[in-house]
Amino acid sequence: MTSTNHTHETEQQRIDRVTYHIDQKAKKVIDRASSIKESVIQLRKDFWEDVTVNIDEPDDVIETQASIKQQAELLTQKEQSHGKLDDELKTLKRLRESPYFGRIDFREDTEQTPEPIYIGISSLMDSNDGDFLIYDWRAPISSLYYDYAPGEAQYDTMDETINGEITLKRQFIIRESILKGLFDTGVTIGDRLLQEILGANASTKMKSIVTTIQKEQNKIIRHKGHPYLIVQGAAGSGKTSAALQRVAYLMYQHRDILSAENIVLLSPNPLFSSYIANVLPELGETNVRQTTFHEYMENEVNHPFTIESPFEQMEYVMTETKQESQSSRMKNIDCKSNLHFKHVIDAYINHLNKQDMQFRNITFRDEILISKQQMHDYFYSLDDALSIPNKLELVAGWLLQEIRKQERHELDKDWVFEKTELLNKEDYQDAFDQVQKQTEDKTNETVHEENILRKKVVKRVFAPIKKKVNNYAFIRTAATYQMLFTHWTPDKSPENWEAICSFTTANLENNFLPWEDAAPYLYFQHCLLGTPHDQSVRYLVIDEAQDYAAFGFACIQHIFPNARMTLLGDVNQAIYRYMADDNPLIEAGPMRSSYKKITLTKSYRSTKQISEFTIPFSPSNERVEPFNREGNKPLLIRQNKEHFTETIMTETNNLRQNGLETIGIICKTQAESHHVAELLKDTIAFTQIDESTGHLPKGLLILPVYLAKGIEMDAVIIPDASKNKYTSEADRTLFYTACTRAMHALVMISTDEPSPFIKEAPQETYLEEER
Ligand SMILES: Nc1ncnc2c1ncn2[C@@H]1O[C@H](COP(=O)(O)OP(=O)(O)OP(=O)(O)O)[C@@H](O)[C@H]1O
């Protein structure tokens, strides 16, 4: 037997032993789960028998409530334990499929012999001797696997650094408990395996990279210490992948105090959210809260505005042909994206503490109960030193008092008596019971009962008014915001202030918030009302962070004051370049406290040929290194317009014949995307993707570049790569982003002179065909 065969056999024997332990453990978990299940069923059945129900006296009611609560808590506890066992079982199932993917033999400096450490997606102990059969990839010792080649190595535990030597580093491919392959590897983790993984076809769902995390990516995943972690990474360098691994790592590291609800992931669009939705479950973790900033705003803004999406803004900027509207819009974007405008809002808030707050009358039965003037006077009579949110709290308290006075005042009115007749049977029964309990004097029973009914009517009629007060509906937030542009002049007005004021006022009057106005409005609303901050969010992960305007990011910092943040992005893909000044990824300025920046330069997505073509026209000076995976050179087809449909058909067929499945026709705008769809609709089957598309399908897709952000395809076709389409510096990021979505093939069609960006790539990096 050769030594390779022997190694293979020994490792397979170990896999069999581990599989046996997994099965044993699974059996125990199933037994425990079914016993809990039975007790849950029993508990549900006996729920009311085990609760002492007695509502005779107020004390009894309290006791009954406590008893119900206790019983309900017991039930929840049991159900939660059942849920946990269920998760454990799912993880065991995954382990059984592939118990581990890596091994290192590590000899600590204080020891004589190395110890083999097997690494998988979750830990497993030998129940007999308490030894680790598998170490979780997130355990401190597992970092050795990702960080070092055989030789001297070290890792940090909670209290110390352990030094030693790695004597072996091995990678496994195990499927259904059978060892399919093993390689002893060097510095980076299995170039061979990585080649294989990266060479596969694109998937409609992103996959975890746990088996092949690279050293630089591992730094991101395990980073500790700074409140802000900023990752600048080349297109396809694994930012999103590392971010999701990091989330799983944080959930493991802080499993006692951190749950999925404490982490929020801000993604660039809903399509992307669905694209990454599988990764955490694949790692055995629950999904965290995922939202887009737009979706978040729509839930948070308290006025019925229509909020433009960032894509609508982008489409407008790129397609609006009227010079005048374009220019006032660009002025507005410049002003509202900038931190200077935040200072304007802060100054305006100070001003509002002295005058101009806008209130709304509280009316009752068509009459003013408390006028806006009264509220105004009360508000401005309060101590100057108090903040606006504090004053508003006092106003709300005062209003509730006034409303209660009015309730008492209304009790004897005729309308109240009339309404008592509309009360239902239960109300009457309740009033009767109360009278029976409370009155000794039987002569006044009817009067007493009527009083109770009157109180019920008044309480019910005033309830919605009180609710509105509690929700601060007495403040006209949007109108107060509008005054900023109509009745107030900042000390240092932003550039083009007059034009901006009339543009903003017109939109506010139409209940419309352009995208650049949404973050300023939400910030204003928060400052004004002191809306409780989202304290529950402890970690915030922002992907495609280069696309956030400085004000947008400041607004996020304000809303999530307790959150540690990981910001990931690529300045080369800053498609909203027109609002990139002071972007948190580019400028460290907006960071309030210390931060760490990590740069990823290696690009894993595309073949070497595609990367070598795109790197020369990448928008910034950030370094990009191609991963060494071979493919065909990108193809530039020059032809007449009439042949467009035919060319798309031919190219799609060629790509498919080469085994490529997901082919994206990436356009500059939605408008171009509609145009291409119109041309192709009778000749070939495709899916057109727009902002409302919730998941990424396979096949031929047509989409604008801003919706292709963050995702990847087997092949990309740029349907119009001419100079007319991509020429300005703002177009450069769009063109670069579109090209870098391609994993295996890139085809560009130009019916005119090709875009100057293509010409920036050396001639030998692409093929050019005249058709
Ligand atoms: N360590 C790795 N092992 C295996 N695959 C990897 C690794 N790192 C990245 N990849 C693969 O490279 C591709 C790009 O990764 P990802 O989408 O995370 O990059 P990105 O930096 O977010 O890209 P972009 O900014 O262009 O959207 C994915 O297919 C991902 O699975």
TrEMBL record:
**Example GO molecular function:** helicase activity
Transmembrane segments annotated in the record for this chain = none
Q: Which PROSITE patterns match?
A: UVRD_HELICASE_ATP_BIND
Looking at the Swiss-Prot or TrEMBL record, what is one Pfam family this protein matches? UvrD_C_2
Q: What is this protein called?
A: DNA helicase IV
Organism this protein belongs to: Lentibacillus halophilus
Domain (UvrD-like helicase ATP-binding): give its ranges.
212-607
Q: Superkingdom, according to UniProt?
A: Bacteria
Task: Kindly list the positions annotated as binding ATP.
Answer: 233-240
Keyword terms, alphabetized? ATP-binding, Helicase, Hydrolase, Nucleotide-binding
InterPro entries named among the record's database cross-references: DNA_helicase_UvrD/REP, HelD_bacillota, P-loop_NTPase, UvrD-like_ATP-bd, UvrD-like_helicase_C
